[in-house]
Amino acid sequence: MVFGRKKKKEEIEEKVEENWDEEEEEFEEEDEEEDLNQ
């Protein structure tokens, strides 16, 4: 039972890391657009 919960937590952490990478890429694109506008 405890092992199952630990595995589930690791899966959630992996998903969070993947989402973070996607959000960082979006921010980088926005920064580039702002630089062009200045």
Structure description:
With 38 residues, the chain is mainly alpha-helical. It is built from one helix and no strands. The longest helix has 36 residues, at 2-37. The chain is rod-shaped and about 55 Å long. The model has no long low-confidence stretch (mean pLDDT 75). Residues 1-38 are annotated as: Disordered. Residues 13-38 have a biased composition (Acidic residues).
List keywords for this structure.
rod-shaped; 38 residues; mainly alpha
In short:
With about 40 residues, the chain is mostly helical. The chain has one helix and no strands.
Radius of gyration: 17 Å
Mean pLDDT across the residues is 75
Major sheet: none
Secondary structure class reads mainly alpha
Number of helices, counting only DSSP H or I runs of 4 residues or more: 1
Morphology: rod-shaped
Helix percent band: over 70%
User: What ranges have pLDDT less than 50 throughout 5 or more consecutive residues?
Assistant: none
First and last CA, distance: 56 Å
Beta-sheet strand percentage?
under 5%
* DSSP summary, beta strand count: 0
The ordered H/E elements are H
